[in-house]
Amino acid sequence: MPRSRAKAGAPAARRAERAPTPAGPARIGREPAVPWTWLAIVAGVALAVYANSLGGGLVYDDANAIRNNPFVRNGDIAGILTEPSWWGGARGPLWRPLTTLTFALDHAVHGLEPFGYHLVNVVLHAAVSVLVLVVFAAATAAPRTALVAALSFAAHPVHTEAVANVVGRAELFAAGGFFVAWWCWLRADRPGAASGTWLAATLVAYFLAMCGKENAVTLPLALVVADLVMARPDESALGRLRVHASRYAALAGVAVLFVVLRASVLGAVTPSPDLLDNPLATLGLGSRLMTAVAVIGLYALRLVFPLWLSADYSYDQIRAVTSPLDVGFLGGLLVLCGAPALAWWGRRRVPALTLGIGVLGATFVVVANLFFLIGTIMGERLIYLPSAGFCLALAAGLAHVTRTNERGGRVPAAFVTAIGIVVALYGARTVARNAVWREPLGFFQAMVGDAPRSARSHRELGTVLGDLGRFAEARQSFERSLAIKPEDATTLYNLGNALSREGRYDDAVAAYERALAKNPAFAEALENLGNAESMRGDQRAALAAFQRALALTPDEPILQMNVANTHFRAGALAEARAGYERALALAPGSVEIRTNFGSFLYAQRDFAAAVDVLGRIPAPAPARALVALGASQQVLGRTADAQATLAMAERLYPGDGNVRQLADFLRRGAAAGAAP
What we know:
- There is one protein chain.
- By secondary structure, the protein is mainly alpha-helical.
- Among the domains are: about 30-60 and about 110-435, no CATH class; about 590-675, Serine Threonine Protein Phosphatase 5, Tetratricopeptide repeat (Alpha Horseshoe).
- About 65% of the residues lie in helices and about 0% in strands.
- It has 33 helices and no strands.
- The protein has helices spanning about 10-20, 35-50, 60-65, 70-75, 75-80, 95-110, 115-140, 145-155, 160-165, 170-190, 195-210, 220-230, 235-245, 245-265, 285-305, 325-350, 350-365, 385-400, 415-435, 440-450, 455-465, 470-485, 490-500, 505-520, 525-535, 540-550, 555-570, 575-585, 590-605, 605-615, 625-635, 640-650, 655-670.
- Helix 21 runs antiparallel to helix 22 (about 470-485).
- The longest helix is centred in the N-terminal third of the chain and has 27 residues, at about 115-140.
- The radius of gyration is 29 Å and the shape is elongated.
């Protein structure tokens, strides 16, 4: 029955005036049934609008989190659980063990084939969308409103960064665990339920959600909001909080446990942002707060009108706010003040709207940069979970305006039309946005178009252009990036990499040295400086750079391999072999190390050892490795094995010159010791 707050003895007519409209029933004791067809519709919409993301590649942050992450490649569960596993230790402080474990499982099943990674993300998003329906239907006793919220959530374009980008899986796990925990919490309130069992399930789901991503820590705040807003007619909101006090204490204990574990792994509780990722870190308090408020306005705009989307908001895309009369600040202030006012207005009339705004605020607070700084100034992926609250508020508002009755009867045509338009527009924008994440070059070109003032956008485009051999365009992109953020060490490092690929080793050395002047502890720059010095013939300078890098990262296997390569070029064969052996001991599964070591052994005519090293490379082995393997097998008299290796090489690398030379060598049946 509707909740009434009329004073005792008030006239009946007065009580009737205060009754909520049919669009906003108060929380009632019976959990409404959700038809399975509704669940299927929500899941179907989520799958449909993200189906075209399944053909995407591994782009942007996927490279570091998956392709370059040794914990993922090697299935190192202990490392994932006990090390800053998100970037394989290369960045931090980030620890998201559950998400990284699933990347490792993906890799174990299908390697770096992108389809499987994307399929998991799309299925997870569909599951989260269904959970949004189930939880909001139970929490509000407004199933029609919950259905609209779930459909909006399933189709919303702001979620593309979380779903179409594989690394966004962290957001999906955090939200999924969040809503599973909330559902278990609600089940514990049902009459006759095994409340202890359901509470235990709540705590486990809550902990796993935080292991997906730490922003799920906000669950208790959302539950407090729900208790305050959706209390049953026969109890006060504060009374509801008292009933749940022991449960909240248990949730707090789990949160503390997670924070302690995370700090023990990372050595810090919160990240230390730099200028590029979060320019707020360099601003004074007043400008920082005004800029953060302006960013809230940008988030709100993307939730309401998701036309302008971007994968990058880093320096200097969002300009610092220095005046309280700034339009961006005033827009954010309007949102910051207007949302609570709307929630207060709806607390009796449309409690589901108030709950939605409350959930939005409770889950957004940890990424708002208002009370403490996080690692980034803004990211659309960060509002994946908070957007569920927005979708509930949107649905409740539509239901209220169209006077939709939650207790049965015909659904107003205006309500159906409105949600049809919203879902259709959201879905169309999502499908279009998914295409941006298909392959690196198109993605970074779009990123520059979306964030033309960002140093990172131009830097990343320059990097991929360099990888593609489009060196002149790459240099132009790096110059644009350095014009925005001069002498940025990472940009100079990437510029040096492109120059090395181009064969301009003198210029590459100069770029690496500029990067090291900015960051002397940049181990990767020292390593590639050594490679560039070696390639231009200065092996002594190369070894000096490598020694500096080894002092910073003594157990880096690729660095050890590069030292061995330099010894090889310098003619120090014993030192080279020892270096290759150290590198292989550190990373026995590395294809690159085995290829270099095997090629060295072949050149040294140690054919048996070459076969042993190269024969352990998993398919598909590089062409150079197959050529050396096949030639070594032929020299050892293993003709059948050599022919099988040649057949594989010709199938994988048709037209490759080295493979043709191997074929000629095998046809000649060369004597031992000859080289193809």
